[in-house]
Amino acid sequence: MTDLLLDAGGELAGFYAAEPELVAEFSERYPNARLVGSAAEILESADIDLVASAAIPDERASLGIAVMRHGKDYLADKPGFTTLEQLADARAVQRETRRIYSICYSERFQNRATVRAGELVQSGAIGRPLQTVGLGPHRLNAPSRPAWFFERSRYGGILNDIGSHQADQFLFFTGSTSAEVVASQVANFAHPEYPGLEDFGDMVLRGDGGTSYVRVDWFTPDGLGTWGDGRLTILGTEGYIELRKYIDIAGRPGGDHLF
To answer: Hey, what domains does the chain have and what are their CATH numbers?
Structure first.
């Protein structure tokens, strides 16, 4: 998110993290960034227009509400919320303050193949979009995960955490402005030692511009050369587009494959 904002002409005014390891990692990546003493210092600064955060998912909404109430706009990593109550609260404060609460869906904004697919669809290359099929497998790598990662109340469930990417792309590519979940299911198929983990989820979506099927999971095998074989198929009335975003198992090198 920081890179996106810098590329768009933003200036990194300062940052804060309570965890020393996160401070060290961020400082190494952005050596000119100024570490401030508290989150309150950022909220109260008159020189800051926008706050970006990749806090633990269940903490993002409360921070975003505080940001808006301090007269600033907010950019959260996905998922932007973990409960419908958080969403309702953020909407109420947004109406009250008229500030922006936005969510960074990197699979759409930072993947070159997805950006190009958007240009093709908008140019009419495949006719009228009818359906998207979004697949989001991920590698679990459980030993590297913090404790909150396995607490459903903190990450919001697999369909909210990972599937929000696919829901965003469905709305974008079909031009849907309203949608509903027709059917969904989640499970913990293979990790009983983590009872709060959902390692599989899928859902069917229907909008005013098309339909979608979404499947997400934590079953990327260790032998794959990347964290996940993320794919998106966009069906239109005159053709279709397939994206293999991070790897092509047919052997073509690199990512960002568009067919």
So the answer is: 2-104 (3.40.50.720), 107-258 (3.30.360.10)
